[in-house]
Amino acid sequence: MAGAIPGKEGHDFVVETDASAAYWHNRPANTLPPPDMMGAYMRNRPVPGPRVEGRKAWIIGGGIAGLAAAFYMIRDGGMNGQDITILDALDVEGGSLDGAGNPEDGYIIRGGREMNWNYDNLWDMFQDVQALELPEGYSVLDEYRLVNDHDPNYSKARLMHEQGQIRDFSNFGLTKPQQWELIRLLLKRKEDLDDITIEQHFSPEFLETNFWFFWRSMFAFENWQSLLEMKLYMHRFLDAIDGLADMSALVFPKYNQYDSFVRPLVNHLMARGVTVRFGVRAYDLAMSVDGDARTVTGIHVKTKGKEDVIPVESRDVVFALTGSMTEGTAYGDMDQAPILERGRHDPGQDSDWALWKNLAEKSPVFGNPAKFYGDIDKSMWESVTLTCKPSPLVERLKELAVNDPYSGKTVTGGIITFTDSNWVLSVTCNRQPHFPEQPKDVLVLWAYALLMDKDGNHVRKPMPACTGREILSELCYHLGIADQCEAVAANTKVRLALMPYITAMFMPRAAGDRPHVVPKGCTNLGLMGQFVETSNDIIFTMDSSIRTARVAVYTLLGLHKQVPDISPVQYDIRNLLKAARALNNNLPFPGERLLHRLLSKTYYAHILPPLPALEGPSREAAQLDLRHLLGRRRHALSAIGESFEHIRGYLKSQK
After folding, report:
1. Positive or negative, the Cα torsion across 552, 557, 558, 560?
2. Alpha carbon of 463 to those of 111, 218, 505, 525: distances in Å?
3. Which of 13, 22, 203, 404 has the CA that lies 20 to 30 A from 468?
4. Quick check: 463 and 442 in contact, CB under 8 A?
C-alpha cells in the first residue's frame, strides 16, 4: 500500500488518505478523523521514534517540493537540519519558482502563482515560516492574509478580442448540452479515464465557449491533454467555479514567487543548518535489491563535469524529484528568439529527466517517463516578461486595470486572454512592485501563449520563432495599440522563456505511468513533484508539490501522522448549488426555484443562491419549474433504465 507504515497486529497506518476510497463513519475502530478533515486537529506533531536520530537525508532538487521535504523532516520528524543536504543542478534554490533580473537588463519570471484559500499543505507550512517583511513572530501566511484581505482580486477585462475590445465574460456561455458534458465528466470514475484526451470527451463547440477560454488560459490546458487531470481540477476547484469568470476566487502574493515563498523558506531552513549544494546533477541511484525490497545505497552525481557517487546508508533517506516542467528552458530577449537544445522526443542524459529515466529502467514501479517527455510539441509553451517604463502600453494597461498600476494594489486581477489570438495569448500585471527593489517608475508584466505552431495574427510567425520585439508587436496589436508599437518598444525590455516540458504533467496518462510517492518495495526512497501519483490531488500547483513531500517524509520516517485528502469542498451542498448556478450561466438551474419554495422558511434557506427578480409571483415560477422537471421524467426514467442495464452487465462480467 502506497504511503502506508506497518503497524501493530498487521494493520497499516495510512499516511496519504483518500476520501473517495470508501465510506467513512464514526465507530469505535475509527480513532482517526475523516480522511479529508482539515483544521487544527490535523496540526498534531508526532513524537519522533528512535529511528530518526543519526539518520542522514539527501534531497535531490531544491524546488518547493525539496524545500518542503526538509521543512517537514525538521518540524514533524524531529531531524537535525545539519543532517539534511539538498542537491540541485541549478545555482539558486527554488527550481521553477524563479524570479530574477534588474531594471537595466529586464526582469524575468518563467511563471506565476495564482492560489486559493484551500491550499492546505502550503498554508500548513507557511504558517510556521517567518514573514519576509513583517516583524519577528509573523508568518508568511500572516503577511499573505494582510495583503489579500485588504485588496480584493478581480478582473474587469478577463477576455478581449477584436484588437482591444473587451468581450462579454459575465458567464460561461454554455448551452444545456454543453453543461451536461461537464456534469458527465464530474460523474465519471477516475479509473475509466486512462489515456483519454479532453477533445475526445467534449464537443468542438464546447471548446470555443467562454468557459473553455477561462479554463484553458487559467490552468494552461491544451485540447489534446489529459481528461482525467481536467476532472481532478474540477473537483479540486469546485468551490471556486463561480469566481472563475472574473477571477475573484483567487489570491495572489505581494511579490513574485521567488521573493514571496522561496526566500523566506530558505532563510528558515538555513537558520536550522540545512546544507544546499549547487551545480550538482543527480542522474541515477544505486540500489540493493532483496526480493521486492529496494534500498538506495548511492547517488550518482555530476559536478562540473566530474562524476561521483555519494554513499547512502540503509538507515538514511533519499527524496528525489521526478521530471521537471521547466527543464531545458530556452531563453531569448528583445532581438533574439529562443533556441531549443532538447530533442523533440528525448531530453537526453544531460537533463533533469535522466534520474527518472534511469529509475524506470530498473523496475515498472517507477513508472513511464517517456509518456510525459516524449512529445514536446504537445507540452511546450512560451512565457514573456516585460519590464516597462511609461509608454502607450502602460496607458492602455491603466484603462484595463482594477486599480492604478502604481498603487501597489491589484492591477489586472489575473490574466487577460485574447480569444481571437491564434496563439491564445494572455497578459497580466500583478501587484507592483513585483520585485522588492523595483524602481517606482517601472512595471513588470507577464504574458504567455498556449499554441506554438500557429502564425500570429499580426506577426506571421509561430511564437517560438519570434524575437521579443515581434512578440511585443503582437501584444500591442491585440491591445489595439499596434500603431504605437515603436513608442512602446523604446521603453520596454522583453525577456523570453520557451519551456518544452511546461505542461508535460498534463499529457494523457494511464495507471502506472506515474510512480507512487513511495514506490512499492522502496525502503528509503521517496519521490516528489509533479510527476508522481497521489489519490485525488491535482498537479501544477505549489500545494501538490508540498503534499508529495509530506507524504514521503511521514512514510519514510515512520511518523504516525496523516496527510489529509484534498479539502472536502466538492462534497459541500452549498458549493454544488452555486456551481450549478455558474454552469447555467448564472441563471437559476432546473429545480432551483422549487428548492427556494420548499426551503424558504427553514434553517437551510440561506444556502441557496439569491434568485433574480421575478416578473410574476414566486409560486407561479416554482410551479413552472416543477412542470419543467416533470416534463423531463421520460428522459430521467430512460437514464435510470440504462444505468440498471449497465449494472446488470457488470454483475454478469464478474461471474
Report:
1. negative
2. 17, 19, 22, 41
3. 404
4. no
DSSP state, 654?
T
**CA-CA distance, 425 to 404, in Å (whole number)?**
23
E strands in 442-564:
443-449, 492-499, 525-528
The strand pair at 57-60 and 317-321 is best described as parallel
- Confirm if 224 and 85 have CB atoms less than 8 A apart: no
CA distance 414 to 245: 11
Q: Is the per-residue pLDDT at 68 higher than 90?
A: yes
Domain ranges of the chain: 176-243, 569-629
- The three cell numbers of residue 305 are 563535469
At residue 434, the pLDDT reads: 97
The answer to whether the CB of 257 falls within 8 A of the CB of 122 is no
Q: Which three cell numbers stand for residue 360?
A: 524506470
Q: What is the pLDDT of residue 643?
A: 52
CA distance 243 to 369: 35
pLDDT of 615 reads: 47
Work out the number of other CB atoms within 10 angstroms of the CB of residue 390.
12
Rounded Cα gap, residues 126 and 93, in angstroms: 17
Give the three cell numbers for residue 125: 507550512
The 3 state secondary structure assigned to 204-249 is CCHHHCHHHHHHHHHHCCCCCCEHHHHHHHHHHCHHHHHHCCCCCC
The gap from C-alpha 7 to its chain's centroid, in whole angstroms, comes to 33
8 A C-beta contact, residue 565 and residue 36: yes
Residue-level pLDDT at 622: 52
The partner residues of 276 in beta bridges, in order of sequence, read 86
CA pair distance 37, 24, nearest whole angstrom? 12
Regarding pTM above 0.70, the answer is yes
**Cα-atom radius of gyration of the chain, to the nearest Å?**
26
The angle at the Cα of 212, spanning 20 to 429, to the nearest 5 degrees, equals 105
Question: What does the DSSP assignment read for 377-395?
Answer: GGT-EEEEEEEE-SSHHHH
Closest CA to 59 of 34, 95, 26: 95
Give me the pLDDT at residue 9, please. Answer: 47
For the chain, the straight-line distance linking the first and the last C-alpha, in angstroms and rounded, comes to: 27
Query: Are 301 and 167 a contacting pair, CB within 8 Å?
Result: no
Q: What integer is the mean pLDDT of 280-305? A: 95
Residue-wise pLDDT for 165-185, tens only, equals 999 999 999 999 999 999 999
Contacting residues for 85 by C-beta, under 8 A, at least 6 apart: 56, 57, 58, 59, 274, 275, 276, 277
